[in-house]
Amino acid sequence: MRSISKTILKKPLQHHTGENTKHVTAPGQIFLFGEHAVVYGQPALVVSIGLRTDVKAKRLDTSRFEAVSEGVGKVSGNIKKSPEGWKIADTQGDKEKLKYILKVSENVFKHLDSGSGIKLSISSELPLGAGLGSSSSVTTAVSEAVALTQGEKIEKETIIDLAYQAEKEIQGRASRAGVGVAVHGGFLKIKNDKLETLEDLSNPDIIVGYTGKNAKTCELVEKVKKQKSKSPNIYDPMIRAIGQTTREGIRNLRSNEIEKVGVLMNVNQSLLEGLGVSTSHLNQLIQSSRDAGALGAKITGAGGGGCMISLCRKNAGKIKNAIDRENGIPIRTEISGGGLKIDSE
Ligand code: MEV
Fold first, then answer.
1. Which of 102, 256, 305, 316 has the CA that lies 20 to 30 A from 295?
2. What is the pLDDT of residues 119-171, one digit of tens each?
3. Cα 279 to Cα 67: distance, rounded to the nearest angstrom
């Protein structure tokens, strides 16, 4: 089997944290059910996975801001209070690539009305922009780490708000699902921006298949919106049916009826294909996983590229090989309960 690219599955740096250093990690996530329909008020089920982003933050004695994101780039600037509030000014380096880190750090300085110098080192096991929640895990972990270096512990709900605002300012739109699951961990039902953690669901085995191609969530959301406004009689019932797969998926995960969960994932996928967000490569990875014995398989996230997930039982190896044969990148990870974690202070 082809080896998985190092940039995709690298282990986070092992940080040696000192007194002034805070170490925070946050998980990535997958949509088990309900992406796209959640934009129209239907429920979605999101869950955290074992792949995490790792942030080390060190307080500096100056007003300097420095951030290094392993394999991505670095940026520096000066933290200043202006008439509009706290800002990271005079920025130099990979501003565009590290825009989530800059924006959420500024949001934390504004929220706390304080801005001491800081050096951030970030590494992630998550492929960037692949629909596995890399931006949500980085914005939440950076938000917590920056606050801790300023001597503050912020409430979980405030971390969610600060990270959500940063994603919204950058992307134009965002949902609280990604940042909510990065903070709380475990299964999260989201409906109309209301988050509900679900504790009594069984943890099925999954395999992620990455197409190696990234797509823009906002463009896919826009595509569905246009189609829906042109032909509401066709698309509205499809959106409602996706919501129904989420509700029944939750019920079957609760009663541990995994085969039924797989069937519902397949139904959800057919509806997503109907919405036009799947691609021929995603369809190949999904079909080959099913042929190799997956109980169900579907896109996770916005589609247009990114990743798919397969629900498996004993046949993980076969499914991984099938994804690999279709030029996908199999990523073995698990559904994992851990949310935002402060590893050491
Ligand atoms: C993208 O990860 C999921 C979508 O439902 C968009 C959203 O919920 O913001 C497509």
1. 305
2. 999 999 999 889 899 999 999 999 999 999 998 889 999 999 999 999 999 88
3. 36
Phi/psi region, residue 129 (left: phi>0; alpha: psi -120 to 50; beta: rest), is: left
Whole-angstrom distance, CA of residue 292 vs CA of residue 222? 34
Residues comprising the chain, all counted: 345
Cα 268–53–330 angle (5° rounding)? 45
Backbone CA torsion sign across 179, 220, 285, 33: positive
Which atom of ligand 1 sits closest to the CA of residue 302? 10
What residues does ligand 1 touch, defined as CB less than 6 Å away?
35-36, 38-39, 131, 175, 177, 217, 221, 301-302
DSSP-derived 3-state class of residue 175: coil
Q: Note every long-range contact of 155-158, with CB atoms under 8 Å and residues 24 or more positions apart, other chains counting.
A: 156/183, 156/184, 156/340, 158/111
